[in-house]
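Run log, item B.
One chain of 757 residues. Sequence copied directly from the ordering sheet:
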Amino acid sequence: MTSPYIKTVKHPAALAIATLAMPLALHAQTTDQVLPEVRIEGKATSEFQVRNSANDKFTAPLLDTPKAVTVIPTAVIAQTGAVSLTEALRTVPGITVGAGEGGNPVGDNLFIRGYNAQTDTYVDGIRDTGSASREIFALEQVEVVKGPNSAYGGRSSAGGGVNLVSKTAKGENFSNATVAVGSAKYRRVTADLNRTIGENAAVRLNVMGHDAHVAGRNEINGNRWGVAPSVTFGLKGPTTVALSYYHMESSELPDTGIPFNNPFSTGPNVSKNGNGTPIGVARDTFYGLVNRDFRDTETDIGTIDIKHDFGNGLTLRNVTRYGRNTNDYVWTQPDDSKGNAVLYGTVWRRANTRVTQTDSLANTSALTGSRTIGGIKHSFTAGLEIGREETDRSSYLFTPGTNNPLTKTFTCPTSGAGTMYNCAPLVNPNANDPWVYSRSVSPARTNVHTNTRSAYVFDTIEFTPQWLLNLGLRWDDFRSKLDVPAYTLNGTATAAQHAEVKSNFTNYQAGLVYKPSVNSSVYASYGTSSTPPGNDGGDGSDGLSVTVYNLKPQDSKNFELGTKWEVLARRLSVSAALFKSEMNNARVTAPDGTTQNVGKKSVEGLELGVSGNITPNWMVFGGYTWLDGKVDDNGFVNAGTTAAPVWVASPYNGNVFPTTPKNSASLWTSYAVLPGITVGGGVNYVSKVYANINNTKYAPGYTRFDAMASYDVNKNITLQLNIQNLTDKLYFDKVSSPHYAGVAPGRSATLTADFKF
């Protein structure tokens, strides 16, 4: 197609926003000229650059999608040495990783643009339910969608979602493998084998084995293994059938982190106040118990993916998936809720436990295609989704209990044997204390069934080659039922509990795109999102309960103004976006003491992104995010007593969102200094992050540096050395709990041999 349409640019507003992402030198590419339209929708010209989402709900190339989307390609994952989802997401600013807590399971706990996105992880476009710590050995790329995600995924947060794109069988033969060793007892092997069967089918097998300690955290260790076979039939025909299976198991001693310096706001202990930062102890301080703590997980996902091309621009796809996640653990949380650390120099070894299994079954059908009607081109996707999730959750009991037997509570004026080692000294605790208890599964069991039905349609309307309109509409029927059977514990009977939520909600998005040139776009967009009670399906902190079951979904909206450019012969992609997100009916305590939809939160921000090649030998990937997150209305608090409550406006109104750094930035760059020799490095910066809505506890900001060098021994073998946390910076990377902060790994080195045949 060669219709010339680039004309003299006479749109000052478009040029103004374009300057957010482009240095002045790049504007030379938009001067007065008439060029043929060249649409490049295939492979990108850089290993760091991705032009299209793997999600068929995106009906235009990413350049023309009116939404902030960051895609982490395989090359970035490999060069940075990432071996987990959270490590890969370190390259995307604006995402923070939260810590497990009492009602919040240990696992991937993501916050995007300040909003909890724990349930907004998808595998090939289908929600991945249940708590897990996800691997990357079977992934092609990771896609991060910013802003309200309900039009794409149904029930969702206001911040965005993460889509994991799986490796599948292809019509070519290749054999890839890696063998890695490193400090902190690091050992890892992977293999990726693909073979064609005749001319019309292929099989692929990915396997992984991993065993390592955590640098600077002597006791912390874990091992995992996984296998992911897939087979595709009909590679060259109109109908393809892809069958895949994913299995991963892990076993680890989970990290306890470091308690906060608990600040006292009133009373005689104010003079002993902590400053709200994590306690200043040695990096390797571990408050857990080797004889008690563990975490075992298991993930199974089976998928049948059928696609038929009708040959007239229409494709029908049906995907069926079954998944199961188990997450069992006993994990010591160094609880500071009674100020033990500041008052007594001790820590209560609170035992957080979980025995959980989540099963899910989903089916989605979608019709994708393009049509020209009345001279206007439509690129569309319309689909139906149904799903069922079931979570069984319980916890462990210990005999004797885990409180301090001297105080009958979790206050710890002393520590050691007299406390049955449930209290530990703040400095130099002994992880091998002889803690011997019996363990059993609690009779208190929670069961949650969630059923969803959804219908959606997306359309990119091309009025002219310069003007596009992107529309999306989705309707969801969400039903979730909570059952807690009656039980008796220690002679005390507890009645059964039941709660059920039935909710219908509709979400949409609309974005107008103006293209100053074929290699650029300027857009304005609006989108909504809905978060119903029980959003997490029974496995997280946003669970269904008798307190919230009758509430309406929390509604969010997002306004965004952005621009995207492909410059330097389209080798380099740059982007910028200004946005404002609002949640107008957040769940908070109302003036009568009940939980109601009367709260309000808002986030304003700026995002910049870059990916691709500056020169043929010089690649870059990174971005910057500025977030101004505020708790506009946090409801009411009781200023009186339990017997005589006096409800007053929350003193936390106007405070900063927890887990929301004002500034965050990341940059990874590599340069081929000689044929076969590449050097690279990365920097991550995150400013102060609050751990509580009071804004009295926080993790200080930090800057972390990484380095990499690779050498091509020959065409089949490459050696790569990665040094993570080059300066051995002590910083805290998990802060969503108000009781403790997660300690990031210290400096580590790994050497990887990459084999390709």
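Observations after the first pass:
- The CA atoms of residues 522 and 563 lie 4 Å apart.
- The two ends are 38 Å apart (CA to CA).
Flagged for discussion on Thursday.
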